[in-house]
Design brief:
Length: 379
């Protein structure tokens, strides 16, 4: 595998004097960028012109990761040419959250299942139910295929997101890359680091990813009680207090959900993934040291699956809520991931509205408020 990573910044242009000569049908170009590149796509067009034969994937962010650095307003790029493996790209349109499961199934239908080893997908971050999206993907894949990825972001604005399709940034799309080849090595890890607090409540009314009632009371009103003065900043301030859900008291598998929108009229909250009726729910809050430790654990898990692979690309997807909480300490988590990956690993990534990864192993899930790592190499 041949690999190069670089960046673009409006004030200084590209960080390389010339684009690496890696264009081929076995090349994947991964690019994450600020939301405003939807309005000024010239740098993306320049990049696409340099790699016309390559496959593409990428999306808008709430912050770009380039190595250990976290930036805003840039493009961060990885160009990966595989030697003994191949890639294929599929795209599906999504106009509303109700179309999520069908869109996930459509992506899988476009990918040849023969020899498929892994799928990396990026989705519009607003008009989607991430849980239903991964359910649609899981329904059409054999259990041994690793699925990871994330939901595009728009900073803390929650207005519009974009995903790369055919080399162009477009809202309302989901794109997936399928990886093929026996020599391919893919690792993954996803960890949180938040603390639960307050009483555990029963979800008594919900529909898909919309939560209406907890313990028979309006969900938004209860949530505002906990936020206090911060309630005026919803939905952005809700990122500081995600929701942990589980099926029942005996379930040790906790999934975290992040708010995407609130509706004052119905006193409801829309989350990035399903909040099923009957589930138990509990608020969470930040623990700085545990957030950084969670990033370390995610990297240890991903790196430990690589079996002494050679040149490695790590794609780090962390939740925008983690960035808001960590503030000036944010690079502690991106430094921690690199410290726990093999020497020479090149890392890019972004801050997201949701992360997609197996909980530990098996089928993928939608997560929120995690650091999720996917590593790629060839044996």
């Amino acid at each position: 595998m041949q690999l190069s990573t670089f960046t673009y910044a409006p004030e200084g242009g590209w960080s390389v004097p010339a684009f690496p000569d890696l264009d081929s049908p076995q090349t994947l170009v991964v690019v994450f960028g600020a939301p405003e590149y939807l309005d000024r796509p010239a740098p993306l067009a320049e990049l696409f012109a340099a790699y016309p034969s390559s496959r593409w994937i990428g999306c808008s962010t709430a912050g770009e990761i380039a190595g250990p650095a976290v930036r805003d307003g840039i493009l961060t790029v990885a160009v990966m040419r595989l030697q003994r493996s191949r890639v294929a790209v599929a795209s599906a349109k999504i106009g509303s959250a109700g179309e999520s499961r069908a869109a996930g199934a459509e992506l899988v239908r476009q990918l040849d299942p023969r020899g498929l080893r892994a799928v990396f997908l990026l989705s519009d971050g607003l008009n989607v139910n991430g849980s239903e999206l991964v359910n649609g993907v899981n329904s059409g894949l054999p259990g041994n295929v690793v699925v990871t990825g994330g939901l595009a972001a728009d900073g803390d604005r929650f207005k519009r997101t974009w995903v790369i399709r055919d080399g162009r940034p477009e809202p309302g799309w989901i794109t997936a890359t399928g990886f093929y080849g026996e020599g391919l090595r893919v690792g993954h890890g996803s960890r949180g680091g938040w603390d639960s607090f307050g009483p555990e409540r029963r979800i008594t009314r919900s529909k898909g990813n919309v939560l209406y009632e907890l313990d028979g009371k309006p969900a938004l009103a209860l949530y505002k009680e906990y936020l206090g003065a911060r309630a005026s900043g919803l939905p952005a301030t809700g990122l500081l207090f995600p929701l942990s859900i589980r099926a029942d008291a005996s379930d040790t598998r906790h999934l975290v959900r992040t708010i995407l929108a609130v509706d004052e009229a119905s006193q409801s909250m829309t989350f990035a993934g399903d909040v099923p009726s009957g589930y138990l729910a509990k608020l969470m809050r930040a623990n700085f040291d545990r957030l950084v430790m969670g990033a370390s654990d995610a990297a240890s898990s991903a790196g430990g699956q690589m079996q002494a692979a050679g040149e490695t690309l790590a794609i780090a997807i962390s939740c925008v809520g983690r960035r808001l909480v960590l503030g000036e300490r944010i690079e502690e988590e991106t430094e921690a991931t690199l410290e726990h990956l093999s020497p020479g690993t090149k890392q890019i990534g972004f801050y997201s509205y949701g992360e997609i990864s197996p909980y530990a192993s098996g089928a993928c899930d939608l997560h929120n408020q995690t650091m999720t790592l996917t590593t790629f190499a060839e044996a």
